[in-house]
Design brief:
The complex is a heterodimer of chains A (155) and B (279). Chain A has two domains: 2-76, Ubiquitin-like (UB roll) (Roll), CATH 3.10.20; 80-154, DNA polymerase, domain 1, CATH 1.10.150.120. Helices cover 37% and strands 16% of the residues of chain A. Chain A contains five helices and five strands; from the N terminus they run E-E-H-E-E-E-H-H-H-H. Chain A has a five-stranded mixed beta sheet, sandwiched between helices. In chain A, helix 2 crosses helix 3 (103-116) and helix 2 (82-94) packs across helix 5 (140-154). Chain B has 279 residues and is α+β, with helices and mostly antiparallel strands. Chain B has two domains: 46-160, Uridine Diphospho-n-acetylenolpyruvylglucosamine Reductase, domain 3, CATH 3.30.465; 166-277, Enolase-like, domain 1 (2-Layer Sandwich). Helices cover 35% and strands 24% of the residues of chain B. Chain B contains eleven helices and 14 strands. Chain B has helices at 9-12, 27-32, 67-74, 79-87, 91-94, 99-105, 113-118, 136-139, 210-223, 233-246, 257-277; strands spanning 2-5, 19-21, 40-43, 53-54, 58-62, 122-127, 130-135, 140-142, 145-146, 153-160, 166-171, 182-189, 194-200, 207-208. In chain B, the strands form four sheets. In chain B, strands 4-5-10-6-7 form a five-stranded antiparallel beta sheet. In chain B, strand 6 and strand 7 (130-135) form a beta hairpin. The longest helix of chain B is centred in the last third of the chain and has 21 residues, at 257-277. The termini of chain B are far apart. Classes of the chains: A alpha+beta (155), B alpha+beta (279).
């Protein structure tokens, strides 16, 4: 174990970490930021989606120690972002949330898509969410939420 | 486990025993599950020396270039590699995994590998001793075994522009997040009158289907290299059979050997039809 300093959600943070620790583990167990969820630990489910230097990645596949010097933004850090807020509203209105476990990951992925593309077609939507798994909704309401959020942001 | 974040190629190559970490899509899974505990990990993510791309008569993609950036760099160039990169993982995975990682790991299911074989690409390896160029045909030696020596880094991969008649096909259970049950790349380099077919996930290495290549070369020779090719049903079927015959598949949790052979034949026929149309 040694002390690790990272830049998370605009602030310098520090905690003890094992050298082989994933960024996801560091966020949750080191920093107590539980928004990024821990499920598959192999990049399959997307529930730990974060932005690393502005790019959508799975925090479970990032070696925490190797993220030193990078800008990390988690779901907590997106609070107050208008695109994220539109996605959150649409998820609630469309019924895109059931158990809620996958929701932060979906919100981060959708906000990332809508930041780059306000008018995604069906294929682009499916592609953008292909790295996030939901075991409750069957996805239809999540896609509906995505369409609503995109429409709101275009208005 | 010791971790070094390399800030230069020189730093990255300082310890010949170290394991390189780029996107983490392979190594971190092993670390997370306690299967891998490398003594020294050297992070090479974001090293500018590994991030170059140049697209033209000769194409070069740096080993550290992730799949999203491969897609951005290539646009419509080298379409088989574009198609392969698009099938990899998900946006999250394509933002992390690199072409150097695909080569370094050298899994028989690596999606860019059949394409690099069919493009007759050259792998550029870097060590403190200098640069070493290995043709892909001599690079992959077995499952997760390659000609890369300890301490050597995949600096880049290069190939000659082979034109637009190319196809990549992949069979799996969904469009995203799938390890190939089988994949196939076909490159018809009309200007150089060359055909190369490479199969992935159906043997211990990427396999070139040489007899299928010979047959296709004959078909293009006959119909004219500069013209669209519409092979007869019999010729297409024979092409598929020869490709399937070159496969050396096994039964595993992703698919049976019989299914894999079948799907190789189907993919080969489709690839021939698609590349034939593009002249």
């Amino acid at each position: 174990m040694s002390s690790l300093r990272l830049h998370v959600n605009g602030e310098e943070v520090e905690a003890e970490a094992w050298e082989g620790e994933s960024l996801l583990y560091f966020l949750r167990e080191g920093l107590g930021r539980f928004g990024s969820k821990n499920a598959c630990e192999q990049g399959e489910c997307g529930s730990c989606s974060v932005l690393l230097d502005g790019r959508l990645v799975c925090a479970c596949l990032v070696l925490a120690a190797a993220a030193a010097g990078s800008e990390i933004v988690t779901i907590e850090g997106l609070a107050g972002d208008p695109i994220t807020a539109a996605v959150q509203r649409a998820m609630v209105e469309a019924g895109g949330v059931q158990c809620g476990f996958c929701t932060p990951g979906f919100v981060v992925s959708l906000a990332d898509l809508l930041r780059r593309n306000r008018n995604p077609d069906e294929y682009e939507l499916r592609e953008a969410l292909s790295g996030n798994l939901c075991r409750c909704t069957g996805y239809l309401r999540i896609f509906e939420a995505a369409r609503r959020a995109a429409a709101e942001l275009r208005a | 486990m010791k971790v070094t974040v390399a800030r230069s190629l020189e730093e990255a190559l300082a310890d010949p025993e170290a394991i390189f970490l780029a996107g983490g899509t392979d190594l971190m899974v092993g670390v997370n599950f306690g299967r891998e505990r490398p003594e020294h990990v050297v992070s090479i993510r974001g090293l500018s020396e590994l991030g170059d791309t140049s697209v033209g008569e000769r194409v070069r993609i740096g080993g550290g270039v992730d799949y999203t950036r491969v897609l951005d760099a290539l646009g419509e160039h080298s379409p088989a590699l574009v198609q392969a990169a698009r099938t990899i993982g998900s946006p999250q995975i394509r933002n992390a995994g690199t072409i150097g990682g695909n080569l370094g790991t050298c899994s028989p299911a690596g999606d860019t590998l059949p394409v690099l074989a069919a493009l007759d690409a050259e792998v550029i390896l870097r060590s403190p001793a200098g640069e070493r160029r290995v043709p892909f045909s001599e690079f992959m030696l077995g499952p997760r075994k390659s000609a890369r020596r300890p301490g050597e880094l995949v600096e880049a991969v290069e190939w000659l522009d082979a034109g637009p008649s190319q196809a990549f096909l992949k069979a799996g259970t969904r469009n995203a997040m799938v390890i190939a049950v089988a994949n196939l790349a076909l490159v018809v380099d009309r200007a150089r009158k060359a055909v190369r077919v490479a199969l992935g996930s159906v043997g211990p290495t990427i396999i070139r289907a040489l007899e299928a290549e010979d047959l296709a070369r004959g078909l293009f020779e006959e119909s004219g290299w500069e013209r669209p090719l519409r092979p007869s049903q019999a010729a297409a079927a024979r092409f598929g059979e020869l490709a399937a015959g070159a496969a050396r598949p096994i039964d595993d949790q992703r698919g049976s050997a019989i299914y894999r052979r079948h799907v190789v034949a189907v993919m080969a026929r489709r690839a021939l039809a698609r590349t034939g149309e593009v002249a």
